[in-house]
Write a structure and sequence with these properties.
Layout (H helix, E strand, L loop, with lengths): L3 E3 L6 H7 L11 E3 L5 H7 L4 E4 L2 E4 L1 H21 L3 E4 L4 H6 L3 E8 L9 E6 H10 L15 H25 L8 E7 H8 L7 E7 L2 E8 L5 H6 L19 E7 L3 E4 H6 L5 E3 L11 E5 L3 E11 L3 E13 L2 H5 L5 E14 H5 L6 E5 L6 E5 L2 E11 L2 E6 L7 H4 L1
Parallel strand pairs: 1-13
Antiparallel strand pairs: 2-16, 3-4, 5-9, 6-7, 6-8, 7-10, 9-10, 11-14, 11-17, 12-17, 13-21, 14-15, 15-16, 16-18, 17-19, 19-20, 20-21
């Protein structure tokens, strides 16, 4: 029997959207904000946003964000020290970190950090020694392996500030309107680090830093990172950031509009059938919030607002380019026992050349299939088709047939 089902957005979805500059991801590991896509980001769009490893499906977001961060940090620190700097993920990060004393830390804030918490960048004794020595200071002499003098602490603070300055200058040059969201909250010595790390319940991401042939370790404590994020760090690294000339501008991607995700109890999802109606929580398509433009490879690239909705054509206004993994935050914050369903509508092919010239505020036409204009997705795979209707003045999705099992379940 057909029924009208009142669904709700996953918890914290609205807060996450407000906190991450039009991103559908509530943590810094899953989102890579920018105004114009860089060549390496365009190349990433041609690869799946999720990969299978060790019998589970992992998001590339943490690894992609980390590789981007490593590239920026290595370039900035190298310029500050006037030395070649290489940053990589060690083969056995936890074993490497176990025997590495921590002597210097940087507390920082960013709007994308989960819950407004602070992140920590922690430097070990070997890396601190390499940084201080690279500055060719008269004070380049650590006391044993664990302590540093006030003068050496000042040199480490200088290296941090100089590196951040290089990053901000480069960001402003490439995107003059980009917000300077990264904020230094303070520097921590070994004693302060010891007290602060007592509060940490999650394992850090561990990185190996090489400065002119000398190596040390750096730990990242990122609020909001979960076990899958850290597991993704062990994935094989993606290809190095390509030069602009190596990105084929004619490569086409399919863009679709993902409507706000819906959270339903799993048993209700299993009972869905043709004729059932899912209420979307709005009276007009134009009033739907948290819509995203997504790719067939599983990426979310921008927020979008519906401007016009006709029988065979949907027109949307595009937000800033904002690369993330589609539905990662919504699925991660779902109520236990619930499943996240996402209505997806329209379809338009854009080349990488067109994406390279992305403009926030531009409009995009998404043709719709007349017979089944909306697809319903579970775990980022289509399970049913439907159409937008009105039920007592409220916008809703009426299913044309019952759900089928996602491809992953069908094997």
């Amino acid at each position: 029997m057909a029924s009208a089902i009142q669904s709700s957005p996953p918890p914290a979805a609205a807060a996450a959207a407000a906190a991450t500059s039009a991103s559908d991801n509530g943590d810094v590991a899953a989102s890579i904000p920018t105004r114009v896509p860089a060549p390496w980001q365009l190349a990433a769009l041609t690869r799946p946003a999720r990969v299978s490893a060790a019998g589970t499906t992992l998001s590339r977001a943490a690894r992609l964000w980390l590789d981007w961060t490593l590239q920026v940090a290595a370039e900035a620190l190298g310029r500050a020290l006037e030395r070649p700097v290489n940053v990589e993920i060690p083969a056995d990060p936890q074993s490497a970190a176990a025997a590495s004393p921590q002597v210097f830390g940087v507390a920082f804030a960013h709007p994308a950090l989960s819950g407004g918490a602070e992140g920590l960048i922690v430097v070990d004794a070997l890396l601190a020694r390499a940084i201080v020595d690279a500055l060719e200071s008269d004070f380049a002499n650590l006391r044993g392996n664990c302590g540093i003098s006030d003068a050496e602490m000042g040199l480490l603070e200088y290296a941090t500030l100089a590196s951040v300055d290089h990053v901000l200058r480069d960001t402003t040059a490439s995107a003059p309107d980009a917000p300077r969201a990264f904020a230094l909250r303070g520097f921590l010595d070994a004693g302060e680090l010891h007290e602060r790390l007592k509060e940490q319940t999650r394992a850090p991401g561990v990185l190996k830093v090489r400065i002119a042939g000398r190596e040390g370790l750096l730990r990242l404590y990122i609020p909001g990172w979960q076990a899958p994020d850290l597991a993704a760090l062990a994935l094989p690294p993606p290809p190095p950031p390509p030069a602009a000339a190596s990105v084929n501008p004619a490569t086409a991607l399919t863009l679709r509009l993902a409507l706000p995700p819906l959270s339903l109890p799993a048993d209700e999802v299993a009972r869905l059938q043709g004729g059932d109606v899912l209420l979307l929580g709005a009276t007009e398509p134009q009033s739907l919030s948290d819509c995203r433009l997504v790719t067939g490879t599983g990426w979310s690239i921008a927020s979008a607002t519906i401007v016009r909705n006709a029988a065979t054509l949907l027109t949307v206004r595009c937000g800033p380019f904002d690369l993330g993994v589609w539905n990662e935050s919504a699925v991660g914050s779902a109520v236990p026992g619930h499943q996240v369903l996402t209505p997806v509508v329209g379809r338009q092919a854009l080349t990488l050349d067109q994406l390279q010239r992305w403009q926030a505020g531009a409009t995009l036409d998404l043709p719709k299939h007349l017979a089944a204009p909306v697809e319903l997705y579970l775990d980022n795979q289509p399970i049913a088709a439907g159409e937008l209707v009105r039920v007592e003045g409220e916008l809703a999705l009426r299913l044309l047939h019952g759900p089928t099992a996602p491809a992953a379940e069908r094997g």
